[in-house]
Every structure is written in structure tokens, then in C-alpha cells.
Sequence to fold (342 residues):
Amino acid sequence: MVKVGIVGGTGYTGVELLRLLAGHPEVDVAVITSRAEAGRPVSDIYPNLRGHFDIPFTEPELDQLKSCDLVFFATPNGTAMKMVPELLDGNCKVIDLAADFRIKDLAVWEQWYGMPHACPERVAEAVYGLPEVNRQAIRQARLVANPGCYPTATTLGFLPLVEAGLVNLTGLIADCKSGVSGAGRGASVGMLMGEVGESFKAYGVPGHRHMPEIKQNLSVAAGQDVALTFVAHLVPMIRGIHSTLYATITSDVDLQAMYEQRYANEPFVDVLPAGSHPETRSVRGINHCRMAIHRPQGGDTVVILSVIDNLVKGAAGQAVQNMNIMLGLDETLGLQAVALLP
Ligand SMILES: NC(=O)C1=CN([C@@H]2O[C@H](COP(=O)(O)OP(=O)(O)OC[C@H]3O[C@@H](n4cnc5c(N)ncnc54)[C@H](OP(=O)(O)O)[C@@H]3O)[C@@H](O)[C@H]2O)C=CC1
Ligand SMILES: CC(=O)N[C@@H](CCC(=O)OP(=O)(O)O)C(=O)O
Fold:
């Protein structure tokens, strides 16, 4: 069994990791941390885990974490980077679900995250954990930067077009909607039922920190700089991300066939039949990114609908997929559950 630790076990991505790992045949979760709940059994806080994880939360202590083969950080931005050097030196693999190691340009990272980087020397070796792009590098990685939720849906949606060089790279538009669990479990007025319920709003319009991450991904895929307009919206659902992506194509090809071919061997990307309209609610509980390609009125504008569960393929599910790849296990272990519906 692989011995795993989770730093940040009380948050939404932490508990989602636990839910998925409860069904993983090769993993023993030996350490689950929370500073606020240290000493309390995990199943006291999350009754769905009773019988699966009855160990107590502990303080995040390096000595204990170093005894693990792999540690997940399901913590706020700026947390993992303080502990990563010691863990890597202790021969422990690390997957950070936050953004500490996602952006290669340190100045850009510090500008968007508003803090100095505590571990700049490890940024270059970190592998961006999008298996559909970096599977080979993830196999060798000791440190994986798990992608953000909007960047996962948006990058996967645009990727085939951008890689093929069939699109105007100065006019990409990503119009994205997220459920409230994307904001984490910490209390805030903006996430109260009275604020979010029966409402709908854009946020971060002048600039959202996922913008440089998406641009980095698409620029690497294109081999040149990409210009992107990205607007996030908060909608009154618990889970789900729906990205409506717009691009102008520069040559006429069978896009449906191109997308199906690009993702034919990907276990967690479904290209739906032409004309489909995926819904966020239909992906609850599973790890897939589902997408549909439309070309309204046969014009030059392509509309891609790319839909994921923000906590599964958008966070914890992708982290488990990355762990499986890093450990040389079957990539789908722990991730085969059928979606909940309704
Ligand atoms: N929610 C989502 O959909 C997605 C989230 N992410 C990213 O994943 C990370 C976790 O998100 P989420 O689960 O929503 O966050 P939450 O706010 O729900 O949970 C944060 C967790 O981290 C722990 N924690 C907070 N500060 C520290 C610290 N300084 N040291 C150690 N542990 C700490 C908390 O426990 P305690 O304070 O008790 O120690 C808690 O368990 C974030 O970086 C987020 O941006 C990525 C993709 C999607
Ligand atoms: C609804 C909501 O607030 N969503 C979050 C995205 C959460 C996330 O996954 O982002 P990181 O992992 O990059 O922190 C936001 O827009 O800030």
C-alpha cells in the first residue's frame, strides 16, 4: 500500500480527496491534517467517511508527513511552498492542489498571488498536472502542480484547436460559471445563501488569477503568445463548472472528428456527439470533463461547451489521477464511480 498524507483535510477539496481515496485499492491514508480540528476523528466532521477514516485529524507536522510516500496539499495558496523543500528532500512526492507551483514566471505569480514566493528554486522542476498534456512528465515528477478548476475546463476545451493552429489566437473568449464550492469551505458573506441563492453574477472581471494560468497553458500549446478574455461567474449551485468558449477558426475542418481524435485515449475527457448540450449537474461525482463542439449557423465562430465537476476533474479527482500516474498505477483507480443523477 502507498502511504499518503493530506494537508488540509477539512476543506472541500480535502474531503473530496478522502471520498475518492476511500475507494482506492492501493492507498492507505495515514495522515490527515487540520489545525482547527486536531485530535477530532475525521468521521466526526464528515459522517459520510465513517468506517472509512476513523483516525483523528492532526497538526500539519513535517516529521509525520515525511513518513508518507506522497503528500497532497489541499490548502490555501502560499501554504505548500513553505513545506515542499523538506518533503522533497525526505524523498516524499508532493501534489499541490493550490497554485504555488502552477506559474513558471515567478514575477507573474507574485503579481497575481500578492506574496513573495517562498520556494522559487522548485518552481522549474514542478510539473503542471494536466495529464492530457503532460502525462509523460507527470510519470517522472516528484512535485506536481494540480491545475485550477477554470483552467482545467478552459484549457481542455480550447486545446485541440490551439494545438492544430486552426484558430485566431488573439480573440479567444472564455465565459465561465462555477458553483459555490469553488470558493472553499471558509465562511464569507459573499457565499451566504442569502447572497448567492436565486442570484447570478460575474466577478473578477478586470482580472482573475486564473487568467495567467490559462494563458500559460494555451501559449505553450500554440508555441506563441495567446490573448484571452476570461470572465468568471458565480451561480447558485454547489458543484460544477460550465465554460462556454468562443474562438474564430481560420480554416475549415471537421472539428467534431478532430476533437474526438485528440481525446480518443483520454479516460477522463468525453467529447459528446455533435449537437449535445452538457449540463454541470450530470457530472457530479465523476472525474470527466465533458465537451461539445458547436458551429452556430456554420459560421467561423466555434462554441465549445466544456463542463466539469470543480471538485473532481477540477481538483481532487485530477489530483488522484496525477497520483496514479506518478506511482505507475492504473490511471483510473479510485475514479470509476458512476455520476449521481439527479
Ligand atoms: N474548491 C475548489 O473547487 C477548488 C480549490 N482548489 C484549490 O485547492 C486548495 C484548497 O481549496 P479548498 O478545499 O476549497 O479550501 P478550504 O478553504 O475549503 O480548505 C482549506 C484547508 O486547508 C487547511 N489550512 C488552511 N491554512 C492552512 C495552513 N496555513 N497550513 C496548513 N493547513 C491549512 C484548513 O484546515 P485548518 O485551517 O484547520 O488547518 C482546511 O482544511 C486551494 O488552494 C484552492 O484554491 C483548486 C481547484 C478547485
Ligand atoms: C467560485 C469561486 O470562487 N471559485 C474560485 C476558484 C477556485 C479555484 O479552484 O482556484 P485555485 O485553485 O486557483 O485557487 C475563484 O474564482 O477564486
In short: The chain has two domains: 2-125, 149-310. Residues 7-14, 34-37, 60, 74-77, 79, 97-98, 148-149, 181-182, 184-186, 310-311, 314-315 surround NDP (ligand 1) (CB under 6 Å). Residues 257 and 271 are 10 Å apart (CA to CA). The mean pLDDT is 96.
